[in-house]
Amino acid sequence: MSDKVVKRPFVNNNCIGCGACIQVAPNYFDYNKEYLSEAKKCETYNEQDVNNAISVCPVDAISWI
Ligand code: SF4
Questions:
Q1: Ligand 1 pocket check: which of 21, 27, 54 to mutate, most ligand atoms within 8 Å of Cβ?
Q2: For residues 18 and 47, what is the distance between their CA atoms, to the nearest angstrom?
Q3: Is 17 in contact with 28 (CB distance < 8 Å)?
Q4: Is ligand 1 within 6 A of the CB of residue 31?
Q5: Can you tell me the distance from the alpha carbon of 22 to that of 2, in angstroms, rounded to the nearest whole number?
Q6: Does domain 9-64 have CATH number 3.40.50.720?
Q7: Burial 8-45 (b: 16+ CB within 10 A, else e)
Q8: pLDDT value of position 6
Q9: What angle do CA 20, 36, 56 make, to 5 degrees?
Q10: pTM for this structure?
Q11: Residue to probe by mutation, ligand 1, list 37, 63, 64, most atoms within 8 Å of CB
């Protein structure tokens, strides 16, 4: 289907586990075993929700890939 979002969010090593992205976009981010954020594997991502998570991250750890 052509309306599928092919890019996905990625959390890099800068993450300090503050939880802000998980609060604003719980569908797409969750804590991993190290209590740091990890992007969930989803079929599609709501661009605005992920962009909100990107904008609240204090260490710029989230990006689209
Ligand atoms: S907002 Fe940034 S630093 Fe905070 S948990 Fe999410 S990725 Fe990590």
A1: 21
A2: 21
A3: no
A4: no
A5: 28
A6: no
A7: bbebeeebeeeebbbebbeebbeeeeeebbbbeeeeeb
A8: 77
A9: 20
A10: 0.91
A11: 37
pLDDT, tens digit (0-9, with 9 covering 90-100), for 50-60? 999 999 999 99
Q: Is 63 helix (H, G, I), strand (E, B) or coil?
A: strand
| Whether the predicted pLDDT of 43 surpasses 80 | yes
Instruction: Say if strands 29-31 and 37-39 run parallel, antiparallel, or are unpaired.
Output: antiparallel
What six digits make up the tokens of 4? 């599928």
Nearest residue to 37 (alpha-carbon basis) of 65, 6, 9: 9
